[in-house]
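Re: the 190-residue chain
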Amino acid sequence: MTRIDALKSIVKIFPCEPMVVTLGATARELAAIARSDNHLYVLDSMGLPPAIGLGLALGLEDSAFTKCLVIEGDGSLLMGFSTLATTGLLKPSKLLLIVLDNGIYAATGGQKTASEAIDFCTVARGCGLEAAEIEDEASLERELIRCRTAPGPIFLRVRISPQNAKTPYLLEDPVVLGETFRRYLAENRG
């Protein structure tokens, strides 16, 4: 499964929920296929999306949103790994953390990450999150549908191929991206 395949499934099942999106190819590919005001593209902030999503999910507990998603990469997750422990401690019921694991740092030239040596799901479970390993598109869609109503925090490790799609760079002002996302939340939190 490619990253774009996974992203298409995610936005099909969660078209309106807030999404914190990691940097690099993930942000570019998502913006290219499904640009939306409910996406917070976290540019040049490797390791921070899970922490941002944790705070957001806690702040949206009483909102009309069914979930708050974080779309993260394996390399970026490794840089912010300690957030899993805090997530397990605080147990935000609306948090869905999706890690697209291609085994490389796609944003910096394709160097290998340590993901093949780490059982992310076992670590997530040890921190108090529900966790599942996903290998194909059909399994991903089934699991995403289940996650719509399942209480969080939930961690999904989604295996993807290392190829990047040809997409334009996402060179926008992070302040503008943040303000667009803030307005979306204010207008839709219910």
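Strands lie at 19-21, 39-41, 68-73, 95-101, 104-105, 111-112, 130-134, 154-159.
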